[in-house]
Design a protein that fits this description.
Elements lengths: L1 E4 L6 H4 L1 E4 L9 E11 L1 H8 L15 E9 L11 E4 L14 E5 L3 E3 L6 H5 L2 H12 L8 E5 L4 H12 L3 E6 L2 H10 L3 E4 L5 H8 L3 E6 L2 H10 L1 E9 L11 H7 L2 E4 L7 H16 L8 E5 L3 H9 L5 E5 L1
Parallel strand pairs: 8-9, 8-11, 9-10, 11-12, 12-13, 14-15
Antiparallel strand pairs: 1-2, 3-4, 3-6, 3-15, 4-5, 5-7
Helix pairs in contact: 4-5, 4-10
């Protein structure tokens, strides 16, 4: 099969190559999936660049998320799953078989039935961002009736956080940095969209809601002052991304605000939390409550350009089509 891979970390154009390699075979409890779409996330290019070092077993096929069709199953898997449309999550976690290839193999629980109304591109957009958004929202219980602030509502995590929070009965405020991103956040269903570059974000948020109950945070260091200003005692700030420089935490200000600051990384979540996210995301898909961001498609031969576009922060979703 044709696969994009790298044998050492480094810049995309230097280390990513498309090669012919032997197609993997599904082992016990695994399925073989013909990949129709592979999603590129920050975790993928950070691993490839060596920013989050991980062992390489001879070679690494990048990209955790994808979607396709099950073509074969290993021992212990129901043969009836052959032909099933599926979305994939954490395909390359501790494994060499990411989704930037014509085929991949994953444990069967990581190949989730994709509702007929959902495209392969949308299926490949879920995984890391939608599951991260789900945990950030629901790790402490329901958010029905709460006011949720989503930082960066036009990013992939922010987009799904808005849609999942609205589905769960929350009021959603989100911050963005441009008119283009504001339009995307409004389309996702946010009740209030604040462009922090053109308005007083704190004043605008307080005019809409005196305080917020939960913050889904992409840039803790840059946004903590705003988060504290709109919080109440007991507000939970959940951060899911690391910035280039670690922030200095204003301990006294956090004490005075009586907030809870929670950190999360998808790779280290309990299996039960991952399974809950998968079930809820699939139910939301089936109900038509999840949509995709604008898609930028790249053929497999242009995998380096796809990773470079993701690193550059292109607005929308980068999809590789093997």
């Amino acid at each position: 099969m044709r696969a994009a891979l790298y044998r050492r970390p480094g810049p995309a154009a230097e280390v990513l190559h498309v090669e012919e390699i032997e197609r993997p075979q599904p082992g016990p409890g695994e399925v073989l999936v013909r990949v129709r779409a592979s999603g590129v996330n920050p975790t993928d290019f950070k691993s490839r660049a060596g920013m989050t070092p991980r062992p390489i077993d001879e070679f690494q096929i990048p990209d955790q998320d994808g979607a396709g069709i099950i073509e074969a199953v290993g021992p212990g898997v129901d043969p009836g799953r052959v032909g099933e449309r599926v979305w994939l999550w954490l395909a390359a976690a501790g494994r060499r078989w990411g989704t930037a290839a014509e085929w991949t193999v994953v444990p069967e629980r990581q190949a989730v039935p994709l509702p007929d109304g959902a495209s392969f591109e949308l299926g490949a957009s879920l995984g890391v961002p939608a599951m991260t958004a789900h945990y950030c929202l629901f790790c402490d219980g329901p958010v029905n009736g709460q006011t949720v602030l989503v930082a960066g509502g036009a990013g992939a995590v922010g987009h799904f956080a808005i849609e999942l929070a609205k589905r769960a009965g929350a009021r959603v405020i989100t911050t963005v940095s441009s008119g283009e991103k504001a339009a995307l956040a409004e389309k996702a269903g946010a009740d209030l969209v604040v462009n922090y570059r053109t308005s007083d974000a704190v004043e605008e948020i307080r005019a809409f809601a005196s305080t917020v109950d939960r913050v889904i945070e992409v840039a803790l260091g840059a946004d903590l002052e705003l988060d504290l200003a709109v919080s109440r005692p007991g507000t939970t700030i959940v951060t899911y991304a690391a910035e280039a420089a670690d922030p200095v935490l204003p301990v006294r200000a956090c004490m005075a605000a009586n907030v809870i600051v929670r950190f999360m990384l998808l790779y280290h979540l309990p299996a039960a939390a991952l399974d809950r996210a998968v079930a809820d995301i699939t139910a939301a898909l089936a109900a038509g409550d999840l949509t995709g961001l604008p898609v930028h498609k790249y053929p497999l031969d242009h995998i380096a350009a796809a990773h470079e576009a993701a690193e550059a922060g292109v607005v929308g979703k980068i999809i590789v089509t093997p």
